[in-house]
Design brief:
16 helices, seven-stranded mixed beta sheet, binds nicotinamide-adenine-dinucleotide, alpha/beta, 2 domains, Aldehyde Dehydrogenase, Chain A, domain 1
C-alpha cells in the first residue's frame, strides 16, 4: 500500500504530464492506499489517439475468432490473478471480502467471456425484395465497431461495472479509454497488466485518471476523437455528459441513479421477502444502483415485516473487510458519508419514526477514521419526504404500509427515476400485472439482483438511456450498416 497509480496509455504505464496527484484513501481507516497521478488534457488526447490507431490497425484488422480468444484469455488471467484484483478492489472500497470475492471479481472476469461469445454468435439480418424489372434485390446488415469508446465509471462496483462496458466494447472491435472513478482507480489500472500479458495490442485498452469537470472526465467526454460515450453514475453527471456528447453528435449510453421500490404483498413468502430486502437495502452498504430505498408493505403484513427487517438489520455485522464475519462495510468516502448522514438527519427533521440505526457506529482503533454508518430503517414519513424521493445511496430504507394494488403501483411510479423494482407475492397473475405496470427497466419477482447477462439492462426515465446486456450491447457498441444489392 502507499504506492502510485498511473495512467495506462498505448500499452505503457505512465505518470502523465499534469504534475498533479491526489490521494486514494481507504474507506475503512482513512489511510493512504495510493497516490494517483491525474491525467492532463494532453494525456487524454494521447489515449484517444492510441485507441484510434488500434481500431484502424491491429485490433480492427484482427479476425473475430482471434479477438474473442484474446478476450477469453483476459478473463482467464483475471481469474489467475484473482487475489491481486480482490486486494485492490477491497483496498479502494473497503467492501467485505465475501462480497468482492463472490460478486465483483468473478463478474469482472465473466464480462469478457460472455460478450465475446455473444458477439461471435449473433446473426445479422437479411431481406430479399422484388424490383419492377423482376430481378429483385438483396439487403443484408453488417455490424461495424463504433470506433473509440469513452467509458466513464462509478465507484460502487468498480471492476464489475467497468468490464460490463469494456467487455462488449472490445468484443465488437472498438478500442476504449476508461476513466475510473477517482475513488476507485486501482482495478482498472491493474487490468492494464492483464491486457499486456495476454497480448491485447497496445492502444486497445487505455486508462486515464482524474475527476469530472475540468479534469480527465470532461477532457475525455468532450474529446472530438471519441465516437461514443458509455457512462454509469449519477443522473446529474449524466446530464453533463449528454451535453458533452451533443457536440459532434456522439452516441451515448447512460446508466444512472434510482429510487427503487420493493413491493411486498400480504400473500408474500415473508422469509424470502425479508431475506431479499435485507440484501437489496443493505448489500454493499446500500451503494448499489438497484438497491431498495422505498419499501411498500401491504397492511396485514406491515408490523411483522418491520419487526423482522429491524432484527435482520441489527444482526448485520459492521466491520473490516479482513474479518470473514463482516456483512456491512463502510461507505466509500467521508464526503459520501456526510451526504448520507445529512439524509439521516433530514428524515428525523421531517418526522420519521426511527426503527433502527440513524447514526455512526463506534469503531475501534484505526477503524474510527473510516466511513462507517449504521444500517437504518424509518417508518411514518409521507411520500413527499426527502428520503422517500431522493437517492441516498446508503444502507437505509423507508417502509410504508399500503392497501391496494392500484394504490401501490401509483406510489411506486411517483418518482422521476425508473431503474429497478422488487415484487414479493405468491399470486402469479398479480406478479405479471404489477411487473407490467411499474415504470422501470428491471423488475424482479420474488428475488433481487438475479442477473442473466444476456438480458437487457438499463433504466427508464431519469435512470438512463439505452440498454446494455446480451445482444442489446451490440446496439450501442456497433454501427449497423445496410448493404443493398440489386440483382
Ligand atoms: P458520479 O456521477 O459522481 O461519478 C461517476 C463518474 O463520472 C466518475 O468517474 C466521475 O469522475 C465522472 N464525472 C463526474 N462528473 C463528470 C463530468 N462532468 N464529465 C465527465 N465525467 C464526470 O457517480 P458516483 O458517485 O461515482 O456513483 C454513484 C451513482 O451511480 C449513483 O447515483 C448510482 O445510482 C449510480 N449508478 C448507476 C448504475 C446503473 O447501472 N444505473 C450502476 C451503478 C451506479
Amino acid at each position: 500500500m502507499g504506492g502510485e497509480t498511473v495512467q495506462f496509455i498505448n500499452g505503457q504505464f505512465v505518470k502523465g504530464t499534469s504534475g498533479r496527484t491526489f490521494d486514494n484513501l481507504s474507506p475503512e481507516t482513512g489511510r493512504l492506499v495510493s497516490v494517483v497521478h491525474e491525467a492532463s488534457r494532453q494525456d487524454v488526447d494521447a489515449a484517444v489517439k492510441a485507441a484510434r490507431a488500434a481500431v484502424d490497425g491491429p485490433w480492427g484488422r484482427m479476425p473475430l475468432a482471434r479477438r474473442c480468444e484474446l478476450l477469453h484469455a483476459v478473463a482467464d488471467e483475471i481469474n489467475a490473478r484473482f487475489d491481486d484484483f480482490l486486494e485492490a478492489e477491497i483496498a479502494d472500497t473497503g467492501k467485505p471480502r465475501s462480497l468482492a470475492s463472490h460478486l465483483d471479481i468473478p463478474r469482472g472476469a465473466a464480462n469478457f467471456k460472455i460478450f465475446a461469445d455473444v458477439v461471435k454468435n449473433v446473426p445479422s439480418e437479411f431481406f430479399q425484395f422484388d424490383t419492377p424489372d423482376g430481378a429483385g434485390a438483396l439487403n443484408y446488415a453488417l455490424r461495424v465497431p463504433k470506433g473509440v469508446v469513452a467509458v466513464v465509471c462509478p465507484w460502487n462496483l468498480p471492476l464489475l461495472l467497468m468490464t460490463w462496458k469494456v467487455g462488449p466494447a472490445l468484443a465488437c472491435g472498438n478500442a476504449v479509454v476508461v476513466k475510473p472513478s477517482e475513488e476507485t482507480p486501482s482495478t482498472a489500472t491493474l487490468l492494464g497488466e492483464v491486457m499486456n500479458k495476454v497480448g491485447i495490442p497496445a492502444g486497445v485498452y487505455n486508462v486515464v485518471h482524474g475527476f469530472g469537470p475540468d479534469s480527465a472526465g470532461e477532457f475525455l467526454t468532450s474529446h472530438p476523437g471519441v465516437n461514443a460515450i458509455t457512462f454509469t453514475g449519477e443522473t446529474r453527471t449524466g446530464e453533463a455528459i449528454m451535453k458533452a456528447a451533443a457536440t459532434g453528435i456522439r452516441n451515448i449510453s447512460l446508466e444512472l441513479g434510482g429510487k427503487n421500490p420493493a413491493i411486498v404483498f400480504a400473500d408474500a413468502d415473508l422469509d424470502a421477502a425479508i431475506e431479499g430486502t435485507l440484501r437489496s437495502a443493505f448489500a454493499n452498504c446500500g451503494q448499489v444502483c438497484l438497491g431498495t430505498e422505498r419499501v411498500y408493505v401491504q397492511r396485514p403484513l406491515f408490523e411483522a415485516f418491520v419487526a423482522r427487517l429491524k432484527a435482520g438489520a441489527e444482526a448485520l455485522k459492521i466491520g473490516p473487510s479482513s474479518d470473514p464475519a463482516t456483512t456491512l462495510g463502510p461507505l466509500i468516502s467521508q464526503e459520501h458519508r456526510a451526504k448520507v448522514l445529512s439524509y439521516y438527519k433530514k428524515a428525523m427533521d421531517e418526522g420519521a419514526t426511527l426503527v433502527t440505526g440513524g447514526g455512526v457506529p463506534d469503531m475501534p482503533g484505526d477503524l474510527a477514521n473510516g466511513c462507517w454508518v449504521q444500517p437504518t430503517i424509518w417508518t411514518g414519513l409521507p411520500d413527499e419526504a426527502a428520503v422517500v424521493r431522493e437517492e441516498v445511496f446508503g444502507p437505509c430504507c423507508h417502509i410504508a404500509p399500503f392497501d391496494t394494488e392500484e394504490e401501490v403501483v401509483a406510489r411506486a411510479n411517483d418518482t422521476p427515476y425508473g431503474l429497478g423494482c422488487a415484487l414479493w407475492t405468491r399470486d402469479l397473475a398479480r406478479a405479471h400485472r404489477v411487473a407490467a405496470a411499474v415504470n422501470v427497466g428491471l423488475t424482479w419477482v420474488n428475488s433481487w439482483f438475479l442477473r442473466d447477462l444476456r438480458t437487457p439492462f438499463g433504466g427508464a426515465r431519469q435512470s438512463g438511456i439505452g440498454r446494455e446486456g446480451g445482444v442489446h450491447s451490440l446496439e450501442f457498441y456497433t454501427e449497423l450498416r445496410n448493404v443493398c444489392i440489386k440483382l
